[in-house]
Design brief:
It contains 2 helices and 22 strands. It is mostly beta strands. The model has no long low-confidence stretch (mean pLDDT 75).
């Protein structure tokens, strides 16, 4: 758990309520946390700033805006990236728009968002910045959901093209990405380095493979509300809850790839 105010970010142990770490303005490059942007619990906007292991904290540095990456486990500050203000002109030097942060600390930004042809920028936990996708279509919009976890140097980012939802797969080394087709933007999904798995409300799973536009639907006949998925060892693991919140049964199912 994380507590954010206008001066300090604190990591809180969810079981004991004790503060594990605290980060102030000095560690945040002298910037002030924007608590309002992270306080909208459960909103799509908040998902851009929070992943399983990292926080992308929106901050104000004088008259400029930025995003600071913080390791949620240790409180370590990894990098800062300037982003454009809502009233910036298209020719502003700070033309990057924050897209999201993934589970291993990679931040994703859209560069030149107000200029026709634009690029997707990746900032690594080391602070290194690389161009992941250059000269994207001017009508592409990078979706508000956080990038999915990186696996073997690859990760995926949701995009909207001509009103249809896709994922752009890229390598963190900066080589060109390809498009993965999915029927809609996902809220419960995982990525194993080759395939994206989306779990739908009816229990079915859409599987999209890098380089193939048409996803494949599978139906493992799961019951309950899906709240967590992960992929590994040639299996997809799905956790569902049955019954009232806090009182129901938790079921974890393994689905072979």
């Amino acid at each position: 758990m994380v507590s954010v105010d206008t001066r300090t970010i604190r990591g809180v142990d969810g079981r004991t309520g004790r503060i594990k770490w605290s980060v102030g303005r000095q560690q945040l490059y002298g910037c002030t946390p924007d608590a309002d942007s992270m306080a909208q619990s459960g909103s799509v906007e908040t998902k851009r700033y929070v992943s399983r292991n990292w926080l992308a904290v929106p901050v104000t540095c004088g008259t400029r805006n930025a995003v600071v990456a913080v390791d949620a486990g240790s409180g370590r500050v990894a990098w800062r990236h300037g982003v454009m203000n809502p009233d910036d002109s298209p020719l502003s030097a700070a033309s990057d728009r924050f897209v999201g942060i993934n589970d291993v600390g990679y931040g994703v930004f859209e560069r030149g968002a107000r200029k026709g042809s634009h690029s997707l920028i990746v900032q690594a936990p080391s602070g290194q910045v690389k161009v992941a996708l250059s000269k994207a279509r001017s009508r592409d919009i990078w979706g508000p959901l956080s990038p999915l976890v990186s696996v073997n140097g690859k990760m995926v980012v949701p995009i909207v093209r001509d009103g249809k939802h896709y994922f752009a797969a890229m390598t963190t080394s900066g080589s060109q990405g390809s498009i993965l087709g999915l029927a809609e933007e996902v809220s419960v999904a995982t990525f194993d380095g080759v395939r994206v798995y989306e779990v739908r409300e009816d229990g079915s799973i859409d599987v999209a493979t890098v380089g193939r536009l048409a996803p494949v639907a599978v139906r493992p006949a799961m019951k309950g509300d899906v709240f967590w998925v992960t992929a590994g060892n040639n299996n997809l693991f799905v956790a569902t809850s049955e019954g009232p919140s806090g009182k129901g049964r938790i079921v974890i199912a393994a689905v072979g790839n």
